[in-house]
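Human: If only I could read backbone structure tokens as easily as an amino acid sequence. Underneath my words sits a plain record pairing an amino acid chain with its backbone structure tokens. Take your time, and here it is.
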Amino acid sequence: MKSEIEIAFVLAAGLGKRMRPLTDTMPKPMVPLAGRPLVDHTLDRLEASGIKRVILNVHYMADVLEAHISARTRTRRGPFVLISNERDEVLETGGGVAKALRLIGERPFLICNSDTTWVEKDASNIARLIHAWDAHRMDCLLLLAEKDRSLGYEGDGDFHMAADGKLNRRGEGETSPHVFAGVSIAHPRMFANCPEGAFSLNVLWDRAIAAGRLHGMVLDGWWMHVGSPSALADAERFIAGHDSRPAPGNGEWK
């Protein structure tokens, strides 16, 4: 059966300030993890999930990233990649996607951070997310990581998830078990009457929460928050041999 979702938008325009000094000489999506740029991990997962077309935005060190994407396209098969040029403006996550809607069209699509990664346990998590998508009930479906099965994350969580998958924000002073893992599916209708210029996807997620149309699915495996050089080193060790497993009772790998 043909999937409804064949297009992905990859967020690759960030400044990568927390990854300095590595990002003094390269954009964050080009920082290597396990011998390959972070963006290649993302594109490879999309290719394996049947995505046919990718729109990727660029801003910081855009020429470096564009050259890499061009070389990748010449030397291997995979999704056709279009560049959304944001060299002259910082549009944030929501503004970047909104600018590219004319390239995306009217069908649901994936939105992926270019620096998010994980170790799969069994099935492909992107394929699971696509299978779980229900346009009748959802405007957006987020891939969520369990906080105690995450590496490099030290926050208080992002969302509470009900039995039917609906999401609500954690309240001030609360903790929640689920963290946004950097991948979602969105319907273009979520962007109707969205702000102009730069804005965060959080604005649209809050609208979807109010309408009861923001849902979540939990990642099967280990999520890695690769936000700094030290977190990158931890992820390298984990991928190499799972050296960084938490102790039993705190999200032990099974």
